[in-house]
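With this grant's support, we have settled on a layout for protein records. A representative record follows, to show the layout.
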Amino acid sequence: MVEMGRGGAALLLAAFTLLQSPHPAVCRFLRFEPGYEYQYKFQSDAQVHRVDKFTMEARVGYTSLGDEGEGQEIKLRVISLNLHAGTAPGQQGHNLDFSNWFSFVLTPHGEVVHVHHAAKENEETLAIKKGLAALLAGRLHDHGDQDKVTIIKTDEGWRYHVQELGHEGPHNATYEVIPSKDGKLFTKTRHNHPVKHATGSYSKKIHYHDDMKIIHTVEIEEHFDTMSEPPEGYDPYIVGHGKPKEDEEDDPTVLPSMTGEGKGKLEFLTRLRVKDQSQLQRPDTWIVKGSIHIDKVLRKEPRVNLTSAMPSITGNLTCMRGQPKKGSQKLTDCFFQLLDILRLLSDKDLTIVADDYFGLET
């Protein structure tokens, strides 16, 4: 492997960072009427600077199958879904098969307890289904829940702090609640970013409809920034790649940054009675129980092997180390060329490179 100094190791670490995206309760809030499919439209726009803009449009149906102990089991049906990338002509998503069974257990307070899905479901398809299920997820509480959370009165309503598990993993959040025309508006703010070493902001506005006892609209806004310097305690020399020259050892390194933001909106359209009740029977075989958490989505086939990729990896690192301290356009170009190469590796080879260069958990 190539020898590199603190700056090169930090740059490669930054590149890797960019590659890595309940209990039963009294029925106080959510109650989907069994036998009806509640149809919603969803649209999201995400912009990752210097990479691309991505748009997703979907129509989704949620049908209650009745109670399953901790809450209602909700069957999810992807009626249509299209993905657009700014640099790719046409629509994507039509090649994904959403016909396999997927359901989730939703408590009256909005927690997704677990999901049921096909044992051999495509990982990308499963991740999308979990994300669509998680749009309804939250922690909806009011003054009647003082035994569960600490309710703090505000000028317009109330707020509370919770720990919850979402599709992005465990996190802390604060909810601010105010009355609305048709019910209540819950605004969730997430306090920690699910991607290690990244920072950002996340808010989710949940419009709850009192009469219908459903979530009518969800609005999400998110912003993220990658790390600008190596994490505290990081030692680039622990795996024996050699130290830099003495005159380079204390040079500050300007890391090319990557930022992004996204917005999404889920909106209720209509409620239709399900005529074919056989569609509401969960299969007895080939169905497994899992978490709403989306961990790692493994890629199917690598497009290059590690041996052929190493010259490009080391070459771009050398390019970045040779740039001036204040940064340059060439530094940024080489950084993103490095990202392009890393994306082509298998998950196994990516882990080998990370372990070899960093000696850290990835």
In short: The longest helix spans residues 306-321. Confidence is low (pLDDT under 50) at residues 1-6, 10-27, 237-242, 245-249.
